[in-house]
Amino acid sequence: MTYTVTPYCTACKYTDCVEVCPVEAFHEGPTMLYINPETCIDCDVCVAQCPVEAIFAEDQVPEKWTEWTAINAQECENLPTISAQKEALPTALTLDEIKALDADGKWPPPASE
Ligand code: SF4
Ligand code: F3S
């Protein structure tokens, strides 16, 4: 199995998740982070750290985002790992704000991905 970062990370990158990962499984892209299935040891600790609930165990990824497990694996091939927390992106929103936009079909924002 592995864990998957889904589009609620987009434009946020809170990076609380990387602080707790024991194996540097996170890789950083310009708009979001991704989890490398080759290094992730399925410890589950990152899930609760994400303030916008962007991380899921592979078998619990919401239906509309199931393709993101493969996207995570793909993106990690060419992106650097990230192991220290840094400031969130200036575009970061709260979970409630993201959920409202998502409900209106406006997430992720068009400028990302
Ligand atoms: Fe890292 Fe554990 Fe999250 Fe996998 S489940 S990305 S090993 S913190
Ligand atoms: Fe993204 Fe959440 Fe980590 S917003 S960077 S998955 S803490």
Q: What's the number of helices?
A: 4
Oligomer: single chain
The number of E-state strands comes to: 4
Report low-confidence residues grouped into runs of 5 or more: none
What characterizes the major β-sheet? 2 strands, antiparallel
Mean pLDDT: 96
Strand-pairing-aware structural class: alpha+beta
Q: What value does the Rg take, in angstroms?
A: 13 Å
Hetero groups in this structure are: iron/sulfur cluster, FE3-S4 cluster
Our measurement of the CA-to-CA distance between the termini, rounded to an integer number of angstroms, reads 25 Å
Strand content: 5-15%
The side-by-side strand order for the widest beta sheet comes to 1-4
Helix content: 10-25%
Order of helices and strands: EHEEHEHH
Task: Characterize the overall form.
Answer: globular
